[in-house]
Write a structure and sequence with these properties.
It is globular and about 45 Å long. The longest helix is centred in the first third of the chain and has 30 residues, at 2-31. The protein has helices spanning 2-31, 37-46, 60-84, 90-114, 123-144. It has five helices and no strands. It has one domain (2-144). The two termini are 16 Å apart. The protein is mainly alpha-helical. The chain is 77% helix and 0% strand.
């Protein structure tokens, strides 16, 4: 039972994150800007002063961090669903994705503020895209549930 739930949460988190990230890569392609969360995570890491190792923007670490956050979001949704008796519907997925997107924007903004050399992105455009990407995450998540 626990292994089934764990497998389900991990699978849904990975697939919803991949769907969201595919959207981000598509937006990046069509807008000729970098909206790719795993790459931006790697750029944040690479630009940490006196960091012992240098990683490229395509390094697996950005993907691992991004996917782990997605799995964590599925855990949070399931927790909230059970505590507040939230139904698994497209509406709940959209609402959860919107909230996750706004929280994501807050964390990215904090990162851009406190990092000594953050990556260069058009923040307003990136943040708007991020909210839509998380809505896609939320929709994908509930469809897989």
């Amino acid at each position: 039972m626990i292994m089934t739930i764990l497998f389900s949460v991990i699978s849904i988190g990975v697939l919803a994150t991949l769907t969201m990230t595919a959207f981000s890569y598509g937006v990046s392609y069509f807008t000729h800007s970098n909206m790719k969360e795993p790459q931006l995570i790697n750029l944040f890491i690479r630009r940490i002063p006196s960091q012992p190792f240098k990683i490229g923007k395509e390094h697996v670490l950005g993907w691992v961090i991004h996917v782990l956050i997605g799995i964590f979001l599925v855990v949070i949704f399931n927790f909230c669903r059970h505590i507040f008796n939230i139904p698994i519907t497209l509406v709940s997925g959209i609402i959860f994705g919107s909230i996750a997107g706004v929280i994501g924007v807050c964390f990215w903004q904090l990162g851009f503020i406190i990092h000594p050399h953050p990556p260069s992105v058009e923040r307003k455009k990136y943040y708007l895209h991020l909210i839509f990407a998380h809505i896609i995450f939320g929709i994908t998540m509930v469809l897989l549930m």
